[in-house]
Design goal:
DUF3224 domain-containing protein, SO1590-like_sf, DUF3224, 79% strand
Amino acid sequence: MTSTATASFTVDQWEPQATDEFGGNELARVAIAKTFTGAVEGTSKVELLTATNATSRAYVGFERLEVSVDGRKGSFVLHHTADESGMTLKILTGSGAGELTGISGTANIEIDGEDHHLTLSYTL
């Protein structure tokens, strides 16, 4: 059965570092740290690779969450992909540890001004 856990989060660190620029394109690496409160409680570290130009942007990344989900403590990895067509966040198969061993599912991030929210749809 699929469960849903929601949380608010803050972005505690956002450190972009340009790695290459050519023909109007920029490649960068971004290090991010987050703190979650709610049914998902804890912290995460994110590594993104981004590509941007005047007409489009995209990123791929991995986020290691050290959290409790609905009271179960452990960790797992979210795989991020995004471009103009949308964002996909999937739990990396086999990445769950502790009481989150075997977790699978997807996530959604919504940003409304200063407010950031995560909705995790998962099975254990």
